[in-house]
Amino acid sequence: MKLNKSSFLAPTLSLAFLGLGFAGHTQTFLKKHPGINPYHYEVVKEASFAHGAVSSAHPLASMVGAAILKEGGNAFDAAIATQFSLAVVFPGAGNIGGGGFMLSRKANGDLMGIDYREAAPSKANRDMYLDDKGNPITKMSLDGASASGIPGSVAGMIATHAYAKLALSDLIEPAIEFAEFGYVITEKEANGLNSQKANFLKNSSAPSAFTKQQWKAGDTLYQPELAATLKRIQKNGLAGFYEGETADFIVKEMQHSGGIISKEDLKNYHPKFRKPIEFDYKGHHIISFSPPSSGGILIAQMLQMIAPYNVGSMGINTEASVGLMVEAQRRAYADRAEHMGDPDFWKVPTKTLISEGYAKERMKDYVPGVAGSSKITQAGQVHESEQTTHFSVIDAEGNMVAITTTLNDTYGNKTIVAGAGFLLNNEMDDFSVKPGSPNMYGAIGGEANSIQPGKRMLSSMTPTLVTLNGKPYISIGTPGGTTIPNQVFEGLVNIIDHKMSLKAAIDAPKFHHQWIPDMIGVESDFPDATIEALKAKGYNVTKRGRFGRMDGVQIMPDGKRTAAGDKRGDDSVAGY
Ligand code: GLY
Fold first, then answer.
1. Percentage of residues in the chain with pLDDT exceeding 70?
2. How many domains does the chain have?
3. What is the 451 CA–ligand 1 centroid distance (Å)?
4. Residue span of the structural domain in which 169 resides
5. Which of 273, 284, 317, 498 has the lowest tally of Cβ within 10 angstroms?
């Protein structure tokens, strides 16, 4: 096993370390896996493993996934255990109160997409976030229970379990133990929790584990209410979340801040199977998620638009390659705003949008070296916090899973369900609240993505798989709101055209154009010479902090699984 360890967390003494839980729960998972120490763990940024590997936003979640693989679970088992663990150890985006997309390719070539995106409650309506003058009340679709769609993550994981090998209760157990016996938080988590303390207290009906104290790196976070909720799911499956005590807690929390999710909404929630998007790019077969995510269509459009060009010879992040790719981004994102939404409510012309002929047609007016124009000058404000989380798993058999899951904003709507201990999403903001008005990400939408009861809001999440010569090759994805499809696009170009390693492709500075606003956002470490050259061509270029946290696993020619975690976060890999 080759390790590239980039940071280390000091051990801490805690009550839980002495074996004292809150509700007499006996540790089974952690006892069986003494190598997974929630009070002393390392961030591992890149490593190669002989059998199976996991890359996720948190070291403990990746270690759990790897332990499950080693114990005989397949990639689906590992993914379920990783998602539940992230809900505890990465509360800003890991979740049971949000939703996501599970994309898989089994070793026998079977593809599957499970859409567990949140849905609009039955009482939702098209104009629910508009004031009496017809203007958007942004706060309502972002803060508090009024911003929440019906959560899908628990149902999504239970649907995924049909393809797993181990008992569901064993896959939830590690999360319960992290919640009940606590885990040491990183500096990033401490800062995140402290920065949202006032919002948590304002938006939630009661104080929570997150608001107990001012946090610092090395403190132990216990989440007894979340542990109890996870135990109800462990015992009763779907009913442990969508009915009974947990449903009661959710519906009660709704009353505090104008939420409209009812008990019927929870009971009626179902994940949906979606046919993945598939296309070829320079000898590679790419598989990604279909609507209600825009991600798969966008990367199919953008990669096919640039396919006729020798991007490798242009060099990474040069004026030539960025100019070409930005013009592809502009065209694809314009189509997103017009054509994409929940396919059960809106006819998305997927077949046309992802066809090679359409890509050619869209690039007909592209002139190399000349800045295009989105023709609409009003710019939406781009929000810097783009929290979602992605993780990838490849097992020993060659089953590949890519999951991107989210609460939307960092810590969702900042509302912790009293008694149940988990954060709710503010995914309703991903709908087009008013045609032509930008959402949190500055994204514009129209009728295709308007609010209707039961409809799923358009997403940018892009869990993606790649095969090479018919064999499993890469599982990859990232958080980052509307930057997600562009990051995956650029990550794949880095690997396929620029022949970079997975880790280098992930860490390379990224850029983003989403049609409106008509500007290129670049990461702070983007080459200055390219910025100046693009400006000279007439592009509006703005430096932004950082985009996303991309994680992936790649099968190397010798069969080893090389896993890479983004330099931008606490992302960490594990395997065996
Ligand atoms: N909430 C981010 C997305 O689904 O695109």
1. 94
2. 1
3. 15
4. 6-273+388-449
5. 273
Ligand 1 touching residue 189 (CB < 6 A): no
3-state secondary structure of 459: strand
Q: What is the pLDDT confidence band of residue 381, given thresholds at 50, 70 and 90?
A: very low
Give the tens place of pLDDT for each residue, 161-192: 999 999 999 999 999 999 999 999 999 999 99
Is residue 483 annotated as part of the catalytic site, yes or no?
no
Q: Ligand 1 centroid vs 82 CA: distance in angstroms?
A: 20
| Active-site position among 82, 388, 462, 482 | 388
Q: What band does 439 get if pLDDT is binned at 50, 70 and 90?
A: confident
**Domain assignment present for 141:** yes
Question: What tokens does 63 get?
Answer: 């270690």
Query: Phi and psi for 99 in degrees, rounded to 5?
Result: -155, -175
- SS3 letters across 469-482: CCEEEEEEECCCHH
Asked if residues 146 and 139 have their Cβ atoms less than 8 Å apart, the reply is no
Q: How far apart are CA 5 and CA 124, in angstroms?
A: 47
Tokens representing residue 461 in the block? 């999440």
For residue 353, what are the contacts with CB-CB under 8 A and spacing of at least 6?
297, 300, 301, 335, 339
Residue owning the nearest CA to atom 4 of ligand 1? 459
Whether the CB-CB separation of 491 and 561 falls below 8 Å is answered with no
pLDDT tens column, 112-162: 999 999 999 999 999 999 999 999 998 999 999 999 999 999 999 999 999
How far apart are the CA of 131 and the centre of ligand 1, in A? 24
Atom of ligand 1 nearest to the CA of 479: 2
Q: What is the C-alpha to C-alpha distance for residues 26 and 121, in angstroms, rounded to an integer?
A: 38
Give the side-chain half-sphere CA count within 13 A for 126: 10
Q: Is residue 497 part of a domain?
A: no
What DSSP line would sit under 89-145, residue for residue?
H-TTT--SSSEEEEEEE-TTS-EEEEEE--B--TT--TTTTB-TTS-B-HHHHHSSG
Give 302's contacts (C-beta < 8 A, 6+ positions apart): 325, 328, 329, 332, 485, 486, 489
Report pLDDT for 446.
Answer: 83
Residue 171 lies in a domain: yes
> Has residue 288 been placed in a domain?
no
435 versus 150: which is more confidently predicted?
Answer: 150
